[in-house]
Amino acid sequence: MFKRLWLIAAILLPFGAAVAQEVPLQHVHTNINDVQSLQRGARDFMNYCSGCHSLRYLRYERMGKDLQIPLPLLKKNLMLTSKKPLDHILSAMPEADGVKWFGVAPPDLTLMSRYMGNDYIYSFLKGFYADKTRLWGVNNLYKPNVAMPFVLATLQGVQKPVYKSVTDPSGHTRMELVGVTPGTGGSMTPAQYDEFVTDITNFLNYTAEPIKAERRSLGVYVMLFLALFFVLTYLLKKEYWKDVH
Ligand code: HEC
């Protein structure tokens, strides 16, 4: 019995250690009601991401309506992968090519914000750093050995890894990745880049649940209705019980 416990502990220990090493995610403030941010996010997504990633559960027309983009503008600026507004937003790249070029097909991003959370997407886009041992010359703080090339390098510049030496209880010293230096050589300041990736994250938060903004505002009306209903019911109760007391 004890032997087995030891075995389980021995198997689980490395996982525990791996989790403990993870760099904490960076927090992002998204606002689903900020239509301008969503519009910028959509524009940037189409320009920088749609070459590889699809939003297969969203149609162009729906996106245009929700983001208040008139059809002619939508067609001219955002419909890069199709001519028909009712089409789903599919990447121009066939899945098989993705596997061939990157080893992994770029995942569909419609639901990524629900699957991994906004903080993850934001951190992931800020987590690329130079690593010569990798095929694309980059690695990622939040997704070790990432297969995605860093397509925003011209904007953020190149970040360098920061290591700290740690000695474990058995006396072994090793280098642990703890963060990155600010990017150099990019066209954006760190603040501008933060805003840029916030917009994309906000947009992916929208694609994961296009009805969210509407649901929230509906929620306010429901609460107001319930409050009013409570007052009416209370008055009615008073009226009924008047003769009893
Ligand atoms: C040149 C192709 C390419 C472009 C352009 C690209 N990606 Fe990717 N992306 C990939 C590949 C390949 C993966 C799979 C990475 C892996 O599993 O290691 C990926 C994975 C991801 C993931 C998931 C990471 C995870 O933890 O699984 C996110 C989020 C993502 N990309 C966001 C973006 C965003 C946002 C853009 C636009 C700014 C973008 N990508 C542009 C190829 C691309």
Can you describe this structure in just a few lines?
This protein is mainly alpha-helical and 245 residues long. The protein is 51% helix and 11% strand. Helix 7 (118-126) runs antiparallel to helix 9.
Cα-atom radius of gyration: 25 Å
Name the CATH superfamily classification of the largest domain: Cytochrome c-like domain
> Topology as H/E string?
HHEHHEHHHEEHEEHH
The first-level CATH class of the largest domain is given as Mainly Alpha
Descriptive account of the structure:
The structure is a single chain. β5 and β6 form a beta hairpin. α2 crosses α9 (190-208) and α7 packs antiparallel against α9. This protein is mostly helical. The protein is 51% helix and 11% strand. Bound molecules: heme C. Residues 48-49, 51-53, 102, 104, 106-107, 109, 112, 121, 124-125, 143, 146-149, 151-152, 200 line the site of heme C (HEC).
What's the helix and strand layout?
Blueprint: H1 2-21, H2 35-48, E1 55-59, H3 60-66, H4 71-78, E2 88-89, H5 95-102, H6 112-116, H7 118-126, E3 128-130, E4 138-140, H8 153-156, E5 161-167, E6 173-180, H9 190-208, H10 212-241
Antiparallel strand pairs: 1-2, 3-4, 5-6
Bound molecules: heme C (HEC).
Structural key phrases:
245 residues; mainly alpha; Cytochrome Bc1 Complex, Chain D, domain 2; 2 domains; binds heme C
